[in-house]
Amino acid sequence: MALTKEAFLSIIKSAAASGVSDIHLRTDEKPCFRLRGDLVQVKYDPLTNDDLKLVCSIMIKDSEILKGLDKIKEHDGSFSVPGVCRVRYNLMRYQGKIGLILRLISDKVPTTEDLKLPVVINKIAGANAGLVLVTGATGSGKSSTLAAMINFINKTSAVHVLTLEDPVEYVHTPIKARITQREIGQDTSDFNSALRSALRQDPDIILIGEMRDAETISIAIKAAETGHLVFGTVHTTDALSTIGRLISMFPPEEQNVVRTRLADNLHATISQRLLKTQDGKGRVAAQEIMINNPGIREAIMEPSKTKDIYTYIEKGRNTSGAQSFDQHITSLYKEGRITLEEAKANATKPEDFERNLMFGDSQGDD
């Protein structure tokens, strides 16, 4: 039976109601939901090429793109199902067939309380200036964490927030702040063009959807140097790999200067991964939080000392609210939010993690 618009929207509504994060639609295959991290096949007929083309016609509003659909190899975009959710989608070709990955984004902008994030996240969001990076693998919840931080700013500060996104995900309604959300491709041609114009648009806070290259990073650091608070995302696993990635994007002869600029302007990194909750009904973010201090600043500037950052993070738990992944995972386990098996499977240093459970964390576990 051919897919209809009503049936497609019903699939989205069912997925949103069940807490599904992504929907996979592929030619000659049944739809799949990503539910709590696992792919689950839906009881539905395999989708035909015509079914996928219908879905594209519903989601893609640009008539020129639709006319050339048979020639498109990949395409990103978003659309809204009113009263249900927003959808970020990626169209791809595989073996000559159409595939679609749909990321469901709640109409409700989350709060840090909704996401059960550490209280220090609001403090980081309230910084006056500097570079704040939220990092993690695709699907680790970076966008939700950033949206919650912007939500906090929106409720507490009379500032101008400028976001550069590809595409816009959570849509913020101004409360105390004025929020300008610009979508790459629709409102501006690319990140670098938008960033070069951003400093002329009187922002107090700039959010960059992704730090993709040396030019983006350099402009972001410049914005932080001139007194702006800048948020960005990087596809890295922790603070050490984030710092290494940013520096490595520049030519060798520029890297020492970049180290100094980064050391002076990086305010915090928030690295996260999603763990299954103990009841099996959801997921919770485990976060490594690095907040810059004199020791970390020196470790960024001196390559031989960079490895010491991990120690400074652990020592900062009782002073600045910083924490390592293992410190947070230990807390999540002791609070009964994750199982021991899940904790062990996701610990950065499993041996140290088990020792700390047995003898206590000398760095100040909750």
From TrEMBL:
This is PilT/PilU family type 4a pilus ATPase. CDD domains: PilT (cd01131). Signal peptide: none annotated. One of its GO terms (molecular function) is ATP hydrolysis activity. Belongs to the GSP E family. It comes from Peredibacter starrii. Residues 346-366 are annotated as: Disordered. InterPro entries: AAA+_ATPase, P-loop_NTPase, PilT/PilU, T2SS/T4SS_dom, T4SS_GSP_E_ATPase. Residues 199-213 form the Bacterial type II secretion system protein E domain. Residues 346-355 have a biased composition (Basic and acidic residues). It comes from the Bacteria.
